[in-house]
Amino acid sequence: MSQTFIQQRTERTEWFLRDRFGMFIHWGLYAIPARGEWVRSVERISSEDYRQYFDEFNPERYDPKAWARTAKEAGMKYAVLTAKHHDGFCLFDSKLTDYKSTRTACGRDLVREFLDAFRAEGLKVGLYYSLLDWHHPDYPAYGDRIHPMRDNEAYKRDPERFGVYLDYMHGQVRELLTEYGKLDIMWFDFSYDGMKGEKWRATELMEMIRAQQPHLIVDNRLEASGEEGGSIYTEQPSLYSGDFASPEQIIPPRGVTDDQGNSIPWEACITLNNNWGYGANDLTYKSAKTVIRKLVECVSKNGNLLLNVGPDAAGEIPQRSLTVLAEVGEWLRRNGDSIYGCGEADLPKPDWGRYTRKGNKLYAHVLEESVGPVNLAGLGDRVQRARLLADGSELFVTRPWNAKLYPDDAFFNFAQPEHFTYPLPDER
Ligand code: FHN
């Protein structure tokens, strides 16, 4: 693929790499059983039995404006909502199916309300769209097969039949791109086994996407999954390799680079508890401290964090999620300069934490309790001054007591000057 392709990808993702922190929202019929979004497959729920959730779905407390305020106050700059997950239920008013929110008791176009509310709060907006579809009669999963995505008999047996599904899938993506205003992200999910790339007619799909919304950024899962990355990691990315890699429930040890070592846009998608969809009994929520540390780690490696919430069947984000997000937002209100617009610092990771960098500003995230001054090893005289970002207070930068031994070291200390054991600048 040409440098122009890479250059266009760089231009498209400029806002994405600046914003760094987004909200992932997995919501749909599976919020009623409240055992995660794979419940139909894992528990082998038949189409008939799963239909009960369609018949009763009526999220009366769905207030996307409240969701948008929550995301904004948490310091999130963009949000991605499931427009359709693997169960095939559409949260938007698709003309290609009746298996949609506007045909349930709520009668609402949940996607349109989400987009309007989050745009009104100034957030960028994205839609997740499942390539798999356990409901559509022409998708291999038709019928009640456990882990249907792994069982592709229908495709092998009758590609024509699967082609009918692909026309449906492409048609719905076109609906989302042409009837819901300017979108910022399309988050496809996911390729697997032999189902990747042209098996989805991905070139045709990407050409349509680029024609309809050329600025839109797309993830890499038209040819990849959460575990594998696809050609975006290579020097020859395909047309449908996507604009960013999407490691899932992990933060890559050294960030994400192509096979030439060039950093490429990436976003770690991570759940707040252990479920993407609402899990009523899943109380394994990460603390705000953990979320902040993971956000710092992503940015220190040139990546984004897409943090997931799973609203309940009433349409509300769980209180435990709200509590964590509020605390993260408080930290970002005071320390967001060290996250937004920042990236890796091209310095060895210090023992005490991580660096992020923006231009000539270096942010030292001291994550380990330090005994005495914090060593900015290797930075020596390059550090002109230090300030505590949260309140702007001065931190004295000192040189080691035997500078000859540590010529490239500099230290700063959170303690007040009288606690210093080193000569203060004016005493040198
Ligand atoms: O199977 C899905 C899963 O339900 C969830 O949507 C995640 C989010 O990235 N993607 C797939 C698993 O990789």
TrEMBL record:
Pfam families, from UniProt? Alpha_L_fucos (PF01120)
One CC-aspect GO term: lysosome
GO process terms (BP): fucose metabolic process; glycoside catabolic process
The alphabetical list of record keywords is: Glycosidase, Hydrolase, Signal
Q: What is its EC number?
A: 3.2.1.51
User: Gene3D superfamilies of this UniProt entry?
Assistant: Glycosidases
- Site positions (May be important for catalysis) are 269
What does this protein's UniProt record list under function?
Alpha-L-fucosidase is responsible for hydrolyzing the alpha-1,6-linked fucose joined to the reducing-end N-acetylglucosamine of the carbohydrate moieties of glycoproteins.
Q: Which protein, by its recorded name, is this?
A: alpha-L-fucosidase
